[in-house]
Design goal:
Number of strands: 0
Helix content: 55-70%
Order of helices and strands: HHHHHHHH
Structural class: mainly alpha
Largest sheet: none
Distance between the termini: 45 Å
Shape: globular
Low-confidence stretches: none
Number of helices: 8
Oligomer: single chain
Radius of gyration: 19 Å
Length: 152
């Protein structure tokens, strides 16, 4: 049963606090992010107005996958916790898939070299680490608000 959207990887307000790449890495399994996406994100790092390009095909494909999954859930079937479909990968030859797999790791490494170390650790931290950091930050902000309120 789903208790939190994106397994609690994002909470309301994260879309305002986090960079585009941080949002993507919270909701997309890093092992399934294509090299092209890392390259695109790397190109947009220096632009404050950057947003990830959206394609109508992606929305259509996601819609088809979502409908299938909802039908499966309604009929009582269980689904895997993570479902990833890489249309580009599926449509490649075996040789192209091997090159693409290596390219993905190369682009991920290039992307990380463009980030300041703190951002790289923050954005690529495993989900439990990210959640714990976020909870600590929220508690600290709450404590600060309480202290400020008591001082006035």
């Amino acid at each position: 049963m789903v208790r939190e959207i994106f397994d609690g990887q994002l909470v309301p307000g994260d879309e305002q606090r986090l960079d585009t790449w941080e949002v993507i890495f919270r909701i997309a399994p890093r092992a399934h992010i294509p090299g092209e996406m890392y390259r695109e994100l790397r190109r947009g790092l220096a632009r404050p107005d950057y947003s990830v390009p959206q394609l109508a095909e992606a929305a259509t494909q996601f819609g088809a996958l979502a409908v299938h999954m909802v039908n499966a859930l309604v009929s009582g079937r269980t689904l895997p916790r993570t479902v990833a479909v890489d249309v580009h990968h599926v449509s490649m030859t075996r040789g192209q898939r091997i090159v693409d797999h290596l390219h993905r790791h190369l682009e991920r490494a290039r992307f990380l070299t463009y980030l300041p170390p703190e951002q790289a650790w923050s954005g690529f931290a495993p989900a439990p680490v990210y959640r714990a950091r976020r909870q600590l930050a929220m508690r600290a902000a709450s404590t600060l608000r309480e202290r400020t309120a008591h001082e006035h």
